[in-house]
């Protein structure tokens, strides 16, 4: 099984020359976004992508000297974060000063600082107005007319639809949000639809007698933000990697570029099919299948997010993350790694393979009562396809 969000203290600290600047600034990025980030996950993914794509470009732009590469990486990430999250300027400047203090003075250091700032400024300009700010991600969305199969606001808050605007944002590489749009969900009344809904009804109910404690624990663990949990996964890959600094920067950049484009594709699919959530289907007078009786009191284990069912956003994220990690570092971590989750305080799970994370995500959303298995599986496939496309065309990011 799986891995942790290790703390900055796990970086090599035996002496100034031994500090891995990629890991150091990975932790700075994570801490900065945790403290002052956006309310929308895709906006935070954008911050990661801009910061680390500019770092990867900067590190590649000069000599293969450690002084240049370390200065360029830190400068690019610092410039990006100060611009995007200015509330953390003092902390970022202190971290930057600490990094620069370890790098020997000289032309390579000076060139690195300049290259990092230049690449970050250029990319920030390039991404201006890309539609990934919170207001653009969450525009007003009219509630569709109620009908079998059609999404409606869900209890208990019955809030407005979220993330409807992400589908109009400008991807980094995908080009079109609908490039890999999956086929439609199972047709109402079909055997597949019945199997989906019965599974969620039985295993995803708050008072389920079918769901085991182990399954409940997995559902609770993966209820946390994908960005938050998978930052621990990616950190483990970076820490354990034997890649040189430029390749580590590229790994972090491509991971988050793929995740931004995946979230854009996810929004496109969700708001194309506008498929109802299990709680709506199971409570409706017409559940969509004659053999499934309505249960107005049915309640999921976890509160249903306020957007359509198909495909599962958690699983598009996990599918894309798995694809990037498998392609760039292999199917396994070099060593077992631990993962924590903000929705399961005090719980640590240990993993060695990326696919297990995906498999648990698929099950977890069913056991939470908030997605059908078809939505989960379609999400994994969509995420993998978007990530594969990003990796195939990655050279465009660096040309």
TrEMBL record:
Superkingdom as given in the UniProt entry: Bacteria
InterPro entries: PAP2/HPO_sf, V-haloperoxidase
The protein's name: PAP2 superfamily protein
Organism: Nonomuraea jabiensis
């Amino acid at each position: 099984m799986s891995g942790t969000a290790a703390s900055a203290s796990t970086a090599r600290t035996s002496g100034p020359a031994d500090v891995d600047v990629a890991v150091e600034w990975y932790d700075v990025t994570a801490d900065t976004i945790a403290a002052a980030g956006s309310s929308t996950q895709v906006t935070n993914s954008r911050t990661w992508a801009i910061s680390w794509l500019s770092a990867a470009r900067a590190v590649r732009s000069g000599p293969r000297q450690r002084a240049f590469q370390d200065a360029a990486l830190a400068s690019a990430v610092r410039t990006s974060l100060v611009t995007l999250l200015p509330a953390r300027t003092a902390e970022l400047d202190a971290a930057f000063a600490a990094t620069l203090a370890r790098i020997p003075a000289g032309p390579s250091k000076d060139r690195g600082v300049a290259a990092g700032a230049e690449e970050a400024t250029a990319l920030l300009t390039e991404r201006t107005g890309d539609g990934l700010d919170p207001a653009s991600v969450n525009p007003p969305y009219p509630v569709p007319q109620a009908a079998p199969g059609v999404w409606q606001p869900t209890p208990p808050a019955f809030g407005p639809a979220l993330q409807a605007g992400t589908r109009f944002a400008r991807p980094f590489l995908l080009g079109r949000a609908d490039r890999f749009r999956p086929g439609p969900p199972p047709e109402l009344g079909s055997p597949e639809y019945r199997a989906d809904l019965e599974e969620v009804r039985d295993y995803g109910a708050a008072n389920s007698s079918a769901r085991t404690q182990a399954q409940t624990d997995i559902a609770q663990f993966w209820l946390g933000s994908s960005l938050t949990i998978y930052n621990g996964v990616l950190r483990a890959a970076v820490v354990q990697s034997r890649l040189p600094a430029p390749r580590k920067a590229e790994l972090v950049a491509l991971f988050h570029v793929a995740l931004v484009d995946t979230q854009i594709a996810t929004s496109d699919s969700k708001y194309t099919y506008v498929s109802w959530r299990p709680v709506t289907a199971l409570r409706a007078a017409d559940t969509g299948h004659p053999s499934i009786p309505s249960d107005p009191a049915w309640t999921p284990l976890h509160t249903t997010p306020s957007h359509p069912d198909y495909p599962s956003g958690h699983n598009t994220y996990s599918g894309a993350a798995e694809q990037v990690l498998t392609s760039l570092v292999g199917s396994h971590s070099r060593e077992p790694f631990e993962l924590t989750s903000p929705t399961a305080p005090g719980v640590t799970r240990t993993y060695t393979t990326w696919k297990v994370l995906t498999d648990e995500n698929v099950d977890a959303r069913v056991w939470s009562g908030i997605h059908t298995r078809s939505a989960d599986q379609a999400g994994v496939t969509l995420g993998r396809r978007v990530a594969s496309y990003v990796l195939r065309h990655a050279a465009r990011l660096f040309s």
